[in-house]
Design a protein that fits this description.
Length: 226
């Protein structure tokens, strides 16, 4: 899989891919993440990529020309299954969407900034818009990193335990059950006995029941969607 991220502030999005699981995934050759500086596609002598909005109003808008120049340049090198725009008014990102995107080969993610991007780019070049929540960020860079992280960890071989991603919260619509590690007792606080029993069927039953109860308490909206 390859993910190309287009941004006017590349340093904001480079860090998450330079450590831990995402770095190891790239070192293994399981995914290639390339961050593109939008300013390199500007024809302005000062590498300007934003301008005032027609009709007035506060805030700047990412211009159509550098965005289209970048998109076309990348498209000339490979075909993209999705060109994604990180937008607060797109469908909310969830685990089901991550499961869908990991089956793709090449993704391009356009990071919005300022007041957004020229609407003509959204209309004619973007295939999917994604929001990571009902709030506004300074730009789409963090959202692009969140989407990429959620997708990359699903690629076979990225996680050391092949079943780990399958038991994450939201894979089955339920939040994850509580987890414990050693010691079995700390300052009078004990690990539930069932987890120490070695009885696999009872452990799985307990975990499922805990997931259901936690979902009812913390994310009842997930149960309504099932």
């Amino acid at each position: 899989m390859r993910i190309d991220i287009v941004t006017c502030l590349p340093k904001l999005v480079e860090s998450p891919f330079s450590d831990s699981i995402l770095k190891r995934a790239q070192n293994k050759g399981l995914v290639e993440v390339v961050v593109h500086d939008l300013r390199k596609y500007s024809t302005d002598k000062h590498h300007k990529v934003d301008d005032y909005a027609y009709g007035g109003g506060a805030g700047m808008v990412l211009m159509i020309e550098p965005l289209v120049n970048c998109i076309r340049d990348l498209q000339s090198q490979r075909d993209y299954d999705e060109i994604i725009y990180t937008s607060p008014d797109g469908p909310r990102f969830n685990q089901s969407m991550a499961n869908e995107l990991v089956l793709k080969g090449n993704l391009m993610i356009i990071c919005g900034h300022y007041k957004g991007i020229d609407e003509r780019v959204r209309t004619h070049f973007i295939s999917r818009e994604i929001s990571i929540g009902d709030y506004v960020l300074s730009g789409g860079e963090l959202a692009a990193a969140v989407i990429s992280d959620a997708v990359i960890r699903l690629i076979p071989g990225v996680l050391s335990d092949e079943t780990s991603a399958l038991t994450d919260s939201f894979q089955d619509g339920l939040v994850a059950p509580p987890v414990y590690t050693r010691p079995a007792e700390f300052e009078g606080l004990k690990v539930p006995y069932v987890l120490l029993s070695g009885h696999e069927a009872n452990i799985e039953k307990w975990r499922f029941e805990q997931s259901v109860e936690r979902t009812k308490e913390r994310r009842p909206d997930n149960l309504e969607e099932r």
